[in-house]
Design goal:
By secondary structure, this protein is mainly alpha-helical. The chain has helices spanning 25-39, 43-60, 75-84, 93-108, 115-142; strands at 4-6, 9-11. A two-stranded antiparallel sheet has the order 1-2. The longest helix is centred in the last third of the chain and has 28 residues, at 115-142. The radius of gyration is 16 Å and the shape is globular. The N and C termini lie far apart (41 Å). The model has no long low-confidence stretch (mean pLDDT 90).
Length: 145
């Protein structure tokens, strides 16, 4: 495939990070979008999508998609669920909170996150996706019974 350099920017950009195995369709599409956003410097969009992916993982792991008020679960409910189900550990909680905080800032503040911060958030999200989906996929392949 071809590429072009305009004013020092190469297009299409290299998509950082990897693609965890076993992702359901919606999560795979969202993760592809995170990587595409990172590749073109759309850091605000990437951190907001990472925040949303955390919520998808919680719902995919059994948290009801709607609460008694017919609303999506809060971020705190999602994180509590992920911790209760062992998807994340107490030690990982500060990283999840960072994803929440950076995502909130990206959504509500005018100053966009920089490349380094967006990559940090995406790296944690990639690890979460590996823990939530890839490892089960590897085990299912290794022991198909």
């Amino acid at each position: 495939m071809g590429l072009v350099e305009n004013y020092g920017v190469v297009s299409p950009g290299v998509r950082p990070l990897g693609v965890p195995r076993g992702l359901p369709k919606v999560e795979a599409e969202a993760w592809a979008e995170v990587r595409a956003c990172l590749s073109v410097g759309a850091y605000t969009a990437s951190v907001m999508l990472c925040r949303k992916l955390l919520m998808h993982v919680a719902v995919g792991d059994g948290l009801p998609a709607k609460n008694h008020k017919d609303r999506a679960p809060s971020f705190v409910e999602c994180v509590d669920h992920l911790e209760a189900e062992g998807i994340i550990t107490k030690r990982m909680r500060p990283w999840v909170d960072r994803v929440k905080d950076v995502g909130n800032d990206a959504n509500h503040e005018l100053n966009p996150p920089g490349e380094e911060l967006a990559l940090d958030v995406a790296k944690f999200t990639e690890q979460l996706l590996k823990l939530a989906y890839e490892m089960d996929d590897i085990m299912a392949e290794a022991d198909p019974e």
